[in-house]
Amino acid sequence: MVLTPVFFLVLCFVGAIYVSRLLSRTRHKASLKNSVEPGAADTARAALLQAVEKDPADHGSRISLAKSYMEGKNYEEAVQQLNNLMATAHGKQGFHEKEAGFLLGECYMKVKNYDEAYKLYSILRQSDPDNPLPYLQIARIEKEKGDLEKAVKYMMRASSLAPEEAEPAKELAILLYDSKRITDALPMFKTVLDRRPDDVESNYYLGQIYVNFQNYKAAYNHFLKSKNGGAYAAKSLIGIAGILRHFNKHEESLKVLEAVTKFSKLEKEELLEARYQLGETHLAVKDVQNAIAQWEKILSVVKDYRDVSSKIDKYEQMKTNSKLHAYMMSAYPEFVGLCEHAAKHFAKSVIVIRTEPQRDSSIEIYTQAVYREMSGPILFKFFRGTTNVGQLAVREFYEKLKEVKAKLGVCFTVSEYTEEALSFAMGRVLELHGRKELIALLAKK
Fold this sequence. Notes:
Layout: H1 3-35, H2 41-54, H3 59-71, H4 75-89, H5 97-110, H6 114-127, H7 132-145, H8 148-161, H9 166-178, H10 182-195, H11 200-212, H12 216-226, H13 233-246, H14 250-261, H15 268-284, H16 288-299, H17 308-318, H18 322-329, H19 332-346, E1 348-357, E2 363-371, E3 374-382, H20 391-403, E4 408-412, H21 419-425, E5 430-433, H22 435-443
Parallel strand pairs: 3-4, 4-5
Antiparallel strand pairs: 1-2, 2-3
Helix pairs in contact: 1-2, 2-3, 3-4, 4-5, 5-6, 6-7, 7-8, 8-9, 9-10, 10-11, 11-12, 11-13, 12-13, 13-14, 13-15, 14-15, 15-16, 16-17, 18-19, 20-21
C-alpha cells in the first residue's frame, strides 16, 4: 500500500518534466515562426542551425532550415541540408520524404544541376505518377538539353495531369512553336487564353502565328493585347508596325517604329529589328535615303546583320543605275513594262500571254517563247524584294510552273538566292538569275 502513493508521485514528477519540455519545444517553434518575419531571417536561420547541431535527428528543424536557405536564394546550402536529411531520415517516422524530394529537385533546378534534378524527378515520377510537377520539370530539363521532342512528350503529360492549369499548357504551346509545329501550337495557345485571357506571352505568340498564316487582323488584335506587357512590348509594336505596312499604312508604321527606337529599356536585338523594319518601311514609300540611314545605324552596331550590307550595296547602285532604280522603285505599270522588256531579251519570239501580280510584290509573266532551241510556254518570275529569295518562294514557283504546264521557269531578283533555294533548283526545269543578269537585260535596247 505504501508503494502506490510513491509511484503516483514519481509519475507526476516525470509527467511534469515531459509537459515542461513539450511547452519549451512549443515556445521554441513559436519563437522560430515569429523570427522568420521580414528582417529576422538571419536570426531564424541561426536558431535553426543551432537546433540541428543540438539534435541532428530533428527532421522538422532541418527541413525548415533548408526552406530558409531557399527563401534566401542560397540554394547550395539548401541542397546540402536536404541531402543530409534524406540520407539520415530515410524511412524514419515523421519524415516526409516526398516533400524533401520535391524541395531538393527545385534546388537542383535553381543551381542548374540538371543531371541530378533529372534523376530525382524520374524517381518522383515513378513514386507519384499522378503529380504533374515531375513531368513538368523533366520537360524543362529536356528543353535545356535541346531535345525538344522529348520535352514536348513530357510537357504533354504534365498538361494532361493538370487540365485546368494554364502554365503547363502555355509551356507546351511554346515548345510546339519552337519545334516548328505551329499548327499544333495554335490551339494550345487558345487553350491558355481560355484559362488566362490576358496572358501577355500567349497573346504575343498567337500574333506571330497569325502573321505566319497571313491572318493579319487576328494577329493585330493579339499584338494589341501583348504590347503593354513589359518584355513583349517592343516585339509586339514591331509586329503591329509590320501589319500596318502590309495594309499600306506607312506613316502609321513609321510612327510606331520610331517610338520603339526611343524606348529607354530596349534589348539590342529589338533595336536592330526596329531599325531594320524602319528601313523596309522607308523603302515602301520610296525614301531610299532614310532607308540607307537606318541600315548604316544597324551596321554601326553589328557589321554582318542579316542582309543589310547587300541592301546598302544594292541601293547605292541605284543612284547610278536609272534602270535598276526604276525596277525597284517604280509604280506597278512601269515595273511590269520593265519585266516584260527583260523577258523579251532573255528568250526569242516572246509572246506575253498574261501577267499576274503576286502578294510579295513580285510578278509572274506567262509567255510563249523560244529558248535554246526549245519552243513552248515559259513562266517568268521577277522579285523586287530586298531580302534573299529562299527555298519556299522557289518551291512555290515550281509548283505553279507544274500547274500551268510550262516547260521552263525563270526567276530574276536584285538580291541573292539562299543556298537552299539554289540546291532545290538543281536538276529541275528552273533557272535562277541574280542582279547582274537582270541589270544586263534591263540595259538592252
